[in-house]
Predict the 3D structure of the following.
Amino acid sequence: MGPFDHLAEMHRDLEERFEAIESADPDDVQPLAAELIEALQLHSRLEERHLYPLIARVQGRARARQGIEDHLTLRELISEMEDLRPSSFEWLARLFAIKDVVMAHVQEEEAQDFPCLQKVLAPYEQDELQRALERTHGELLRDMHGTPAPVGAMPILEPLRWDA
């Protein structure tokens, strides 16, 4: 399995989580949404750290910015949800807006970005990307669940710099 298969599997997981929320009893929606948001945050951080620098290099900074803007929109919607009463009309509206952004974002990545990067990146670069995704995935999970990172470990997220 290559790096783009790994990311596509994460996309399928997100889609399944949205479907579970849509078919859940009202009392089960908030815990499922919390799990979805955690999965979204993890996936976004992986893409921001590893995928978007490649997209900027191969397809240009403008295309990478589009993806990053989707992620910023998701962060804003998630932040707004935190200030609302769970399962209220406004909270659900944010949740469905998140779904719309995620589904459009996934379609664009899988139809345009992944095939382009797969053609351009050498096999060894794809292997390096796969290892980096797996390593960062583990680091992020440890960070999200309160297990401290080893002393001297690299920061999980670097600041985004478009001029680099």
Summary: The first helix runs from residue 3 to 23. The helical segments are 3-23, 26-59, 61-82, 89-120, 123-144. The chain has five helices and no strands. Residues 69 and 75 are 10 Å apart (CA to CA).
